[in-house]
Design a protein that fits this description.
The chain has about 200 residues and is an alpha+beta fold. It is about 20% helix and about 30% strand. The protein has a domain of about 130 residues: Nucleoside Triphosphate Pyrophosphohydrolase, CATH 3.90.79.10. Helix 1 packs across helix 3.
Length: about 200
């Protein structure tokens, strides 16, 4: 990998790295858990790996997401889930993943508790996209998500609750929900963006 930039030094010093085991048995009391890999390329201005979810998927078709997915029985930690899914979905080998730290888990509208695993990966990647999971991947600069002109909060109704939901508009891509919330938190850490999410993502929406 290339020399570590100040951005990575800042993230690594700001984020805890617990690598704790999953808490409790799989699927306890209907509890749903997922791990996502927020993979940042080892460059002075890191890029972040994002995918456009395949349109045939039942959950969140066509939406922009990080590589990742639900906890499986063999997964011992959120990192195990995130790296396994990243290998399956975009062909990113676990040995290329350097853990930086973790954000607090976020609760999605589909009631998943999502654990963001923040990592550094090589700048030059030969990704292989699984069409069963993603239609395509793209790698915008992380600094893009510090731009207040691209960030907005929308009041949305999901049939049960009204909530404030973050969005980023990147050309034709609308990055929103938990993915946008994770990116906004990273932008706040890495670039002091000062975004107020106006919601406690540790609670059910």
């Amino acid at each position: 990998m290339e020399p570590v930039s100040e951005i990575f030094q800042l993230l690594e010093s700001s984020l805890p790295l617990h690598s704790l085991a999953w808490d409790g048995p799989l699927g306890r009391d209907g509890h749903k858990e997922a791990g996502v890999l927020v993979a940042l390329t080892s460059e002075a201005q890191p890029r972040v790996i994002l995918g456009r979810r395949a349109m045939h998927l039942t959950l969140h078709p066509g939406e922009v997401a990080f590589p990742g997915g639900k906890r499986e029985a063999e997964d011992t930690t959120p990192w195990a889930t995130a790296t396994r899914e990243a290998m399956e979905e975009v062909g990113l080998p676990a040995e290329d993943v350097y853990p930086l730290g973790e954000l607090a888990p976020l609760i999605t509208r589909s009631r998943f508790e999502v654990y963001p695993c923040i990592a550094r990966v090589p700048a030059e990647l030969a990704l292989v996209v699984d069409p069963g999971e993603f239609d395509s991947v793209f790698m915008p600069s992380l600094q893009t998500f510090a731009d207040p002109e691209l960030f907005r909060l929308e009041t949305m109704w999901d049939g049960e609750h009204t909530r404030r939901v973050p969005h980023y508009q990147l050309g034709d891509d609308n990055v929103w929900g938990v993915t946008a919330a994770i990116l906004a938190q990273l932008a706040n850490l890495a670039y002091d963006a000062g975004f107020d999410l106006q919601r406690n993502w540790k609670e059910k929406p």
